[in-house]
Amino acid sequence: MDDRIDELRAKGVELIAGSVTDPAGVTRAKYVPLRRLGDFQRSGMGVSPSWSVFCVDTGIAFTPTIGVAGDLRIRLDPDSVRIVDDGIAWAPGDLTDQAGDPAPLCPRSVLRHAERAADEHGLTALVGAELECTMIAPDGSPASTDPWSPYGIRTSLEHSAFLVDLAATAERAGLSIEQIHTEYGHDQLEVSLAPTTPVAAADAVILTRIVLGRAAARHGLRISFAPVPFVGAAGNGAHLHLSLADADGPLFSGGEGPHGIRQAGGSAIAGVVDALPDLIGVYAGSALSALRLKPGNWAGAVACWGLENREAAVRFVAATAGSPHGANAELKLIDPSANPYLAAAALLGSALRGVELELELPPEVPENPAESAAAPPPLATDQRSAVDALERSAVAAELLTAEMVEALVAVRRHEIQTFGDSPPAETTQALRLAWSC
Fold first, then answer.
1. Superfamily of domain 113-431
2. What is the radius of gyration, based on Cα positions, of the chain?
3. Fold of the CATH domain 2-103
4. What is the pLDDT of residues 199-220, one digit of tens each?
5. Which pTM was predicted?
């Protein structure tokens, strides 16, 4: 431990942040002086159980099992510490009880359980993330009013100093960014991350949000991860790509099914599609999510799959020369208000459930679902419907635990009560920075 402290001190680190991301999708942290790094690992830092039902505003959604009594700890692994700003290093934390055992409402532990379940099935899982976000001015207004060119070289080079700083900060933090580009929406960016194991992938999502936020601040910008930051603006997604392999190789290539999908791979995709109505409240259950989840937004609002189909909930990427990481299935409807650990656990868990039940791959929808007679109707994406479906879902309880579902439902019902009758413009303004780091 002393060597690790000396190493970090030599790099100018003075404070260590350990964070957890709550069911509402908000990342919260505690800091200690560098000399207390070992304490952050051994005994952890105390937090109230109410952290698990903190809401996107200042509310607390107490439940019958979560009140004012009790204490939990945030514990971190010193080897996972990454430098994120001058003098500041960060690490993802596990939420534990006083004895050091995983707390029932630790999202990172829920995902770790899903990762172990894949291993018990003889499967290796890799997850890659794409983060969309919107640059905004310090006062919360749009960052620019100039005409925007989606993916344009002008719009990206006008932010070249920020993008170079972002790349350098990410490299310093050990973050494997594969691609950065300006997106379709005004002042919108996307950052793509390399695939890795599920827990590491969710950790990387949080690290990316922090790195984006710190780099932007140095250039007079703020970063919004709201599903829709301004009424009428393009929505921000938080897509996850999943690949699976067994002893015989990848499940999504080398087989006799469509696009080379093996039978078990087809069952995995079927499991993801089958569980979508139950899990929208996990993937996109916030007060702003439904503004994005509409046909025509490339947000995957229809429970179907298709090769490179950006309107399908599951976009399949085949194993071609243009896919350096091989075949994978991308879940498009996830947005940044989702807890990335729970979203990844739901995605992986529903795929494993499909394999275990040997579900049949549904027919592919190769065209725009809105123009296909074979496609199912759009999903019920309004917040009330999503939360109701989550609350009564046996699948969600199986994949995430009943305790976690209770907490998720509680914080989202608070949002319904608080913002349900508000005009969208007021809600977007109130929550524009709710999920920023």
1. Glutamine synthetase/guanido kinase, catalytic domain (3.30.590.10)
2. 21
3. Ubiquitin-like (UB roll) (3.10.20)
4. 999 999 999 999 999 999 999 9
5. 0.97
